[in-house]
Amino acid sequence: MPTSVAEEYFPVVLQVLVAMAIAGGMIAASALLGHRVRNPVKDQPYECGIQPEGSPRERFSVKFYLVAMIFILLDIETVFLYPWAVVYRELRLFAFFEMLVFVVLILSGFFYIWKKGALAWSMEEKPREKQ
Amino acid sequence: MPANFVPPSGVEYIRVLPEIILAAVATLIMVLEPLTPAPRKRALGYLALAGFAGALAGAAAAGWRTGPAFSGMLEVDGFATFFRLLVILAGLLVTLVSFPYLRREEAESGEYYALLLYSVAGQTIMVSAADLIVLFIGLEISSIASYVLAGYMRREKLANEAAAKYFLLGSFATAFLLYGIALIYGATGTTRLNGIAQVLSDPRMAPAGILTGTAVALMLVGFAFKISAAPFQVWAPDVYQGAPSPVAAFLAAGPKAAAFAVLLRVFMTAFAPLTGRWLAIMWSLSLLTMIVGNFAALLQTNIKRLLAYSSIAHAGYVLVAVTAHSEEGVQAAMFYLTVYVFMNIGAFAVVAYFSRKGERYVEIEDLAGLGVRQPVLAALFAVILLSLIGVPPTAGFLGKFYIFQAAVKADLLWLTVLGLLNSAVAAYYYLRLIVIMYMKEPGDSLLELPGMAVSTRAALWTSAAAVVVLGLFPALIR
């Protein structure tokens, strides 16, 4: 039985040390034992074996950010729906109404962003109201 | 999910009535927002006002049926009800101040009112939380809405700075708090406040001191940020200056009072067994906060920054009551926070009105001659300033009296003496405002000063009246 904090956490420290030793040992071994051949092809960025095309620093529309954020919000809803479906039978009507409240809240947010034009992709479709 | 799950009973829903009302009205406003044409946005503000009024009634109804709710996650007791009423009232007064302000700035929108309601809902959850996780959720609901409100004037540079600073530093502070919660859960195996107290006070179960000590310190950092206690106060002046005046009034009232409520509850219940360990930290925190707030306020020329530093100093006084760690100290802190909410909203209401479009007149010197041009307004402002100093018979005096009384009874003589010296320093910068108002010739700043709108007037009169009435009849809320 471990009696103090130090003893209780000794296995953790041990594991950290072993992990560091293994990782460090591998890097050291490959540095010492392996031999290197340098050529221009090796210095190129590697992307799934396909030749890189153009610069990765491309500009893209800030609209992606908004859509991505909204996507995450609605995605979370789905995440909550799964466990709900699993325990639905046990919780009965309570679960039904709880989820109803949750969905109504999500839908009012959805209604808001829709009406505000956050989902309109091109500038022409932006509805009235300039702030 | 436990097999023996019992759905919440009807009375438990009544105990969360204020939160339900606030959240429902806020969501309704968000839905109505896109459907309301620009000239009629004011109607959404009235709806918000009705929501706050309903929430006040709801909090009172919940206060009649005290007890735990939702498997003990919330504890609706007298303490929670008191602070619920206080933060909802703060929201209501701020809404009143916001009406003419937003119209003047041509920035009326449903989102503003909805965010205000959400923020207050977060605060009511905070003050009634009996579990650290619920506390954290309430704090986040309140904070995130406040971050957005601080940057509400999104075309203004200062507002952007305020929002960015508030958000980044606020998130950082929240992370500290969360880390503390994680450590205390690791040490005690529970997030319930009374459960933590139980484990900590049982010598057979007591976890390692270094673990609980770190947890307490980390959580204290999180709370100290929210109440703007030195050395975690640097954000406050910039945020209050950049935020619209009604929002500054709100930030210094609602979130602060709620954070103090949480601080009191956590340190008086969960961490009560560790009092010996945190007392010295609280002692220095309160002294440092008073000194930094008061001495920095001496140098300010901007009224909003001055009020920000004054709000820091007042947090220091309340921390003296926390340091007293007695029933009396808690009572004193509750009284002082109530008075402070009124004084602060009253002062910012004057700033919101006086600053004119785009907040052009926010320098102290701009107030010159206000006593001649607007005698009634100046008199109300003077009453509030006198209360901020702590002159009898205002409530500010009694608030300080109760706090230092509790401190003396807890043998905090040095802290009391230094605190009293501090309030003497504070008298200088508040009196300076009064002197400028009454004894200086009016300048350009008073040209084209429109009349005060009815709703701001209502908020200002309410605040000034509350300050006087509570000073004369403190038994009303004690």
> Helical region count of chain B?
19
Uncertain regions of chain B: pLDDT < 50 for 5+ in a row?
none
The outline of chain B comes out as: globular
* Proportion of beta-strand residues of chain A: under 5%
Alpha carbon gap, first and last residue of chain A: 67 Å
Structural class of chain B: mainly alpha
Number of strands of chain B: 2
Largest sheet of chain B: 2 strands, antiparallel
Strand content of chain B: under 5%
The sequence of SSEs of chain A as H and E is HHHHH
List segments of chain A where confidence is low: pLDDT < 50 over at least 5 consecutive residues.
none
- According to DSSP, the number of beta strands of chain A is 0
Could you name the CATH homologous superfamily of the domain at 63-125 in chain A? Answer: NADH:ubiquinone/plastoquinone oxidoreductase, chain 3
Provide mean pLDDT of chain A, rounded. Answer: 82
* Cα-based radius of gyration of chain A, to the nearest Å: 27 Å
Shape of chain A: flat
User: Which pair of chains has the greatest number of interface residues, and how are they split between the two chains?
Assistant: A-B, 14 and 15 residues
State the CATH architecture of the domain at 63-125 in chain A.
Answer: Up-down Bundle
Helix amount of chain B, in percent?
over 70%
Mean pLDDT across residues of chain B: 90
